[in-house]
Amino acid sequence: MIRRDIAARPDWRAKVEADGLIWHTAAGDPYWFESAYYAFTGAQIAELEASTAELYRLLLLAGQAIVDDQALLDRFGIPRAFHQPIRDAWNAEPPALNYGRFDLGYDGKSPPKLFEFNCDTPTSLLEAAVVQWSWKEECFPQLDQFTSLHDMLVAKWADIAPLLPPGVLFAHVADSAGEDTITTSYLRDTAEAAGIETGAIVIDDLGWDSDRACFVDLDDQPIAALFKLYPWEWLVNEAFAPHLVKSLADGVIWIEPIWKMLWSNKAILTVLWDLFPDHPNLLAATMTAPGGDAVAKPLLAREGANVSIRRAGMVVAQSDGDYGDEEYVYQALYPLPETAPGVFPVIGSWVVDGTPAGIGIREDGLITGNTARFVPHVIEG
After folding, report:
1. Neighbours of 52 (CB within 10 A)
2. Is 323 or 22 the better-scoring residue by pLDDT?
3. What's the rounded Cα separation, in Å, for the pair 165 and 173?
4. Which of 70, 89, 264, 326 could form a disulfide with 257 if both were Cys (CB 3.0 to 4.6 A apart)?
5. What is this structure's pTM?
6. Which residues pair with 34 in a beta bridge?
């Protein structure tokens, strides 16, 4: 895994915008960063692919253990009213893309290590599925790249289409940066490519019709299927949370399903370690602070918020954010490779319904945050 400098295309902004990536610059600096790229060997890609499949296998076993054990489920801090809906959804397997991004530490030599699994509202999707492929085709047409994500998403929509109502509504927050809007619009495109009729709504515009006891859109039409790029942990703490329980019982299809609350919560890291200690793809994780080196992560933090790195019990790096009132998970510290001065890459390894689907790379300082740069990759040899 080698990082190489390269001249960015003079018109790169226009080209990534043509692929739909309007959120390509953050605070004046490129978020999409093509002044460098990463080169992998075929053997390294095969190892990432195998590790991704293995981690998904472990998550299936961990998920079943959690729904079977009330004490484990309590570890996640999920409101009790939603415990049974989670069990019901896990067992019923309602229609879902079942996609997600494993964030991995990898040095190209030793086995990849799991940092966390972003599977409820993962972003950096368009970049991994489309934009970096377009870059590769122009800059390195003779080389390959590990990304079949776009085709696999379309295929999965086509797979679940017979189980869906005639239309699926896509909801997201009205974010000023446009990141959530881009991601939701892209997933809506993949659904339409599979022949599914779609609509769009801002999450704040969802309504509740008390007479009909159902969620409705802006036209007061009942919502039968909703894709939401909005975390379940936020939904279950909204004022309308009791209505969610009814909608789930009434068979409203929420994509992704509520059982994703288990895998997207960082408490899953402790369950995995309890079940599979010393697994080569896992880092030790506990709910109590160790005295040695560790990374502290709130159960529900996003985009690297409120994370601290501790060496010998002392904080050596930390990030700000709005999380931390909940419990923390303490994960063994993994020494990320420093591929350029102050640059530490994290591999985002995508999976669709259990099948590895490609990778994207973000690089930042010691803590990977919301403004980490996305850097493309190629396969050599």
Report:
1. 27
2. 22
3. 23
4. 89
5. 0.94
6. none
